[in-house]
Amino acid sequence: MPIIACGINHKTAPVELREKIVFSDEKLGLYLQDLSLNETIREVVLLSTCNRSELYCDTDDIDKIVDWLCRHHQVTPDELKPALYFYRNQDAVEHIMQVACGLDSMVLGESQILGQMKEAFSESCAAGTVDTLFNRLFQHVFAIAKEVRTSTAIGACPVSVSSATVSFIRDAFRGSLAASHVVLIGAGMTMDLVLRHLKPLAPESITMVNRSLENAKELAKKYDVQVAPIEDLSNRLMLADIVISATGSTLPVVTKAMLGTRTRPLFIMDIAVPRDVEASVSDVEKVSLYSIDDLKSIIQKNRHGREHAAEKAREMIRQRAGDFMGWLQSLDRVTTTIRAYRRQIEELCEGELSKSLRQLERGDDAHQVLAAFARTLTQKLLHTPTVQLRQAGFEGRMEVLQFAEQLFALSEMELL
User: Fold this and answer.
1) Spatial contact of 45 and 124, defined as CB atoms under 8 Å apart
2) CA angle 27, 33, 35 (to 5 degrees)
3) ∠ at Cα 23 (281, 81), nearest 5°?
4) Cis amide bond preceding 274, omega within 30
5) Residue 111: pLDDT band with limits 50, 70, 90
6) CB atoms < 10 A from the CB of 42, how many?
7) How far apart are CA 354 and CA 18, in angstroms?
8) Active site residue: 6, 50, 57, 70, which one?
9) Residue 6: active-site member
10) What 8-state DSSP symbol labels residue 276?
């Protein structure tokens, strides 16, 4: 049962590649169903966030995974392979646990990834691509994530992508946004966090633009900011000094054509993956365009205070991953033992059956042949267990006898 973890993330691939390898929520079930058609992939979970796209699967054929990724995302192997990583068995289990605990995130210790992994696991269960092995594995993963969160300081005062975005903008504007008009595109959890850090800087105005006005109004009321429909985005961009975009759109929300000719500087922070803003927007005069990858320097400065907690968490993960692999190996031993026992019984049966068939072919009485077959087979089946049980009793190893009672489901009445 080889467990494989593979994918790309913020450490191995730039945003230009990450946005191509995305498993959208709307198509996740279709992706899973397609993977399940591959007979070499027995169980699979797909995780896709702005900073990573990963497959966790029980398979023997890694090449099939690479082919599948390239085919579904229309990238070439030469483009994908340099950024692709693979972990197997215990290394894979440790990696999955580290991801769930936020140790592999751009923001060390961030908690949002655990919810995303739970959603990915739930989707895979619903699609029927999770069985005994991965059900047990992910229960271990979620348990260690909870333990790490409660017993270490890994999540204490974490820097988030949203807070780093606001810090990045504040530094660019030398600490003062008082005269700035800000346009926010999107109304999800990320934008909620952006507003939490942006409001204290007191910009001149904040306008939220979103496809769903109802969602935007609810968030706007919470932070007392303006709301505008997506159809008004072009006009809002012309009046903006700062734009922060974080939607779930698979197509660009801001295009070069929407900006026209700028007469005033525009600072755009696109923290969506896939990106919300066309890359060609950076060619527009007076426009400064930044992506989520530009936040790494700010986030890195804030990692050092949590490295001790991270190392403690990694040690806990190594221990729990070892425990899981021990269970898995014992399961393999059980499977091997059952197969060997079945083979032994089948060989005994085949031997006695062949002898009985020869007796019937030469005309021996069928009743006597069948009675002899049953008697001889029973004696051979019971011989070795009987010898072993008697030896255990003679040596005082009562636990063997107790195990035999459990193994053969012997009731108290049968033992009297």
Assistant:
1) yes
2) 105
3) 80
4) yes
5) confident
6) 17
7) 63
8) 50
9) no
10) S
